[in-house]
Amino acid sequence: MSDAITPNPWHTLRRHTPARIGLGRAGVSQPTAAHLAFQLAHAQARDAVHRELDHVALAAALNEAGLETLDLHSAAADRAAYLQRPDLGRRLDDRSTAVLSSLDAQQQPDLALVVADGLSALAIERHAVRFVEALRPLLADGWRWSPVAIVRQARVAIGDPIGQALEAKLVVVLIGERPGLSSPDSMGVYVTWAPRPGRVDAERNCISNVRPEGLAPATAAARLAWLLQEARARQVTGVALKDESVEVAPAVETREPFRLDRR
After folding, report:
1. Between the N and C ends of the chain, which has fewer C-beta atoms within 10 Å?
2. Where in the sequence of the chain do the CATH 3.40.50.11240 domains occur?
3. Cβ atoms within 10 A of the Cβ of 63, count?
């Protein structure tokens, strides 16, 4: 560490977290390296928000994995409208409504899977296909899937009218989460029983921070499979369905006080 930088005793914890702690200081300011790293992370987050989803490549990858896809769009015509009018991102445009109306929904699928750009198309491009590939073998028996709906300029609630139109028992929405300053590619997964417009967040289950540096896609897929099995059996999601797929680790008791290494 340069003599111009005054170290911070918290710096020993930096190896355990990507959070910006223990950066030290140069005079009354941040060290130059830390300041530049912050600017880079901020630029990456902004780029992720404004990035357009490559829906053609995504559809091709899902088709190659053996899944049919639907090309849908929200009522937000472009990215600017999407960011300024969240309500438009929760509704389908007229063309998409017509596409869904033309489908045969007599099979009443168990699961409608929606892949939406949300606030980070980068997250969907990086993780959605891998996540779906991990989920499929976990739901191989007794689950009927509708075609995967790829929706641009979409919010979480876009899954409700899609699930209703397909007469699906459950809808799962994979969506890019709001980028953080260390996670521009975090994907969220939302599960809703008996989807229909007007559902609220308390009626959904959420798995967040799906990415290799957070919750690995394969691990998240296993949690989702458990939630889906339980949701179908109990016919509920949200606050009425607690994720018990992983046992809570027992608390570690210690009499030793926590100390920072100030050396």
Report:
1. C
2. 52-240
3. 12
